[in-house]
Amino acid sequence: MTKLFQGKKVAVLGLGLSGLATVRFLLKQGVKPTLMDTRLKVSGLEAVPSEKVDGIYLGELDANRLAKMDVILVSPGLDLSHPAIRFAAAQGTQLVGDVELFALSNQKPVLGITGSNGKSTVTTLVAYMLEQSGIKALAAGNIGLPVLDALAESDTEVYVLELSSFQLDTTYNLQLLAACNLNVTEDHLDRHGSMAAYAAAKQRIFQHAALAVFNAEDALTTPQNQPQQQQLALSLNGDDYGVVEIKGEHWLQVAGAPLLPVVEMSLVGKHNQFNALAAAALALAAGASREGVAAALRTYQSLPHRCTLVASQNGIRFINDSKATNVGATLAAIAGLRSDVSGKLILIAGGDGKGADFTELAAVLKAQVDVLITLGKDGSAIAGLVPGAIEVADLAAAVKVAANVAASGDLVLLSPACASLDMFKNYEERGRLFAELVQKVLL
After folding, report:
1. CATH number, domain at 55?
2. β-pairing, 209-215 with 176-181?
3. Pairing of strands 316-320, 308-313
4. How far is CA 434 from CA 110, 301, 311, 413, in A?
5. Domain count, the chain
6. 233: CATH
7. Most Cβ neighbours (<10 Å): which of 69, 99, 104, 196?
């Protein structure tokens, strides 16, 4: 790693969580970086000693200044197609991310998870399975804890990294004990430009993975050009990994043997059965025990805003799936929950679609959703997919309408298929408000 910076001019571009973690890491290595951000005000920058960095530049990016750098550590929030960044790259400046620095510095086993949907659940579930097996594991990356901060946790035995397509774009040497690509559905096309480019970014997780775990039902996850790599295709109908029927009861089959009845899992929905299979395969590859895997599946607490039950009253359930920020996530939620709904499925959707094509939703909305309520920037586009959709001005109105039409046996599902930034700070704020509004209408 020292060769990467020796005698070179280094910049950190983007000073969010991962960017500031990168700055802290470089300062410990004795590197004096130049700091840059497109924002005029950056929270946390005051903690960086100005005398230890080679200048701080906020606001519009200066292409000439960037081009004078030998290495730019680009935060995942920055688009590599930005003209100033492209200009620097064209002049020979090396673009890498914090995950690449992690890869060059780490000596411990690493598991990696990517996918359009479900990666946070699988990442935390894998870490929990390892912990339940007596192995000290730490979840980091796109899930919130920057990978370079994770390196400071010296007692960690296995790192479990959630990796976004943006992070993978600037990662080249990450050695993985096992890697998983859960699914690739339309998302971030405003950044990647095409599904082909988005899928190619996800494929990068398999570059240096000893075991490649992928979705047998999703061709875009199949590893490409990795002839020497051990591969494991997962499906709910698989033999070694899948869901099997034993004496009229559905069991999770793991590594060729029944592990536990599906009803004993704390997670619900078919999509989470697949997530459980993926997590089990990764955890076992890192030394987890079958007993630890089973214990984790029985007691794991689902992450907030991911198909979380927020209220159940008079036979009506309200589910918060605000994390469903793309079409694939909403399709997975509907598929996972529909069979458990005896009455109507009432869906609240809409927000900022990030340039997505919603037509894939149409057939499912017509066949499996009984009442569709839409809001936000692209709410009208979703409403136009089916007759009788109800368009409302905001989330409060959506919850009120849903509560009024719901009866015993019904399920009200907030699963927007869109980002939240047109109306909210983030999907967490949207989910919290949904839960608060539900409690108010139930009073």
Report:
1. 3.40.50.720
2. parallel
3. antiparallel
4. 36, 20, 11, 10
5. 3
6. 3.40.1190.10
7. 99
- Looking at residues 315-327, what average pLDDT do you find? 93
Count CB neighbours of 144 within 10 A.
10
Poorest-confidence range of 44-53, 252-261, 410-419?
44-53
Catalytic residue list: 119, 142, 188
Residue 340 located in a structural domain: yes
pLDDT for 384 beyond 80 = yes
User: How far apart are the C-alpha atoms of 293 and 299, rounded to whole Å?
Assistant: 10
Q: What is the pLDDT of residue 339?
A: 83
Q: To which residue do tokens 């009200």 refer?
A: 412
Compute the average pLDDT of residues 404-430: 95
Q: What are phi and psi of 276, to 5 degrees?
A: -65, -40
Mean pLDDT of the chain, nearest integer: 93
Tokens 């799936």, residue? 321
Give the model's pLDDT for residue 328: 86
- β-strand partners of 13: 36, 74
Residue 71: in which H helix or E strand, if any?
strand 71-74
Specify the amino acid at residue 268: V
- Where in the sequence is the domain holding 316, given as residue range(s)? 308-442
**DSSP states of 117-141:** SSHHHHHHHHHHHHHHTT--EEEEE
Phi and psi torsions of 310, nearest 5°: -105, -20
Q: Does the pLDDT at position 187 exceed 80?
A: no
**Confidence class for position 244, pLDDT limits 50, 70, 90:** very high
Instruction: Specify burial of residue 59 (Cβ count, 10 A radius: 0-12, 13-18, 19+).
Output: exposed
Per the listing, tokens 């039409």 go with 405
- Token readout for 287 is 């030394």
Neighbours of 267 (CB within 10 A): 20
Strands 249-254 and 257-261 turn out to be antiparallel
Asked if 283 and 123 count as a contact pair (C-beta separation under 8 A), the reply is no
Which of 130, 122, 137 is CA-nearest to residue 291? 130
Among residues 299, 334, 366, the one where a domain terminates is: 299
CA of 237: how far to CAs of 167, 218, 259, in Å? Answer: 32, 14, 15
Q: In terms of pTM, does the model score above 0.70?
A: yes
The answer on 295 and 203 residing in a single domain is yes
Centre a 10 Å sphere on the Cβ of residue 173 and count the other Cβ atoms it contains. 12
* Closest listed residue to residue 286, CA positions, set 183, 210, 207, 214: 210
